[in-house]
Amino acid sequence: MKSWISFLLPNDEYKEKKMLYFFSEGAIILFLSLIVMIICNKYFNLDVETVLLAAIAIFLFYVSGRYIVSGIEYADITTESAYRKELRVIFIRTIGFVVIFMICYLIFTNSPKNLDEWFEILSLLIGVSVIWFLSSYISLKRSYKKNKELL
Q1: DSSP one-letter code for 79
Q2: For the chain, which terminus, N or C, has the lower number of CB atoms within 10 Å?
Q3: What is the pLDDT of residue 12?
Q4: Are 77 and 86 contacting, i.e. CB atoms less than 8 angstroms apart?
Q5: Where does the sequence pass through the membrane (predicted)?
């Protein structure tokens, strides 16, 4: 069945079903967190922007976390050599992101002028790349274990 949300879903039927579960679970958690925030607003003065940002973050982190931990991203990784090859690809992709981000940052913004500005941009870049690498690594590891068990 096609819907307006179909572009967010993978073509694989199993992955599509799992993603629909993740989106549904995330929506329920989002709904419950909004109810909690309405109740908390009576006792604490919550800013509208803060509530909306927290709600979006809760949904995105939940769905992303479930997808990473589920082990469905790398369905074709079943051997040790394929696992090592994909790990190399993840590492190269992360390094590529770091290089491209730094080049684009230096082209489109002013070059950092002092040590504090360099520290800010490098710490942001390192933080994002470490999170990206770890999430890809965890997903790969879970997929590999799950695929080995299925054999």
Answers
A1: S
A2: N
A3: 84
A4: yes
A5: 20-44, 50-69, 90-109, 121-140
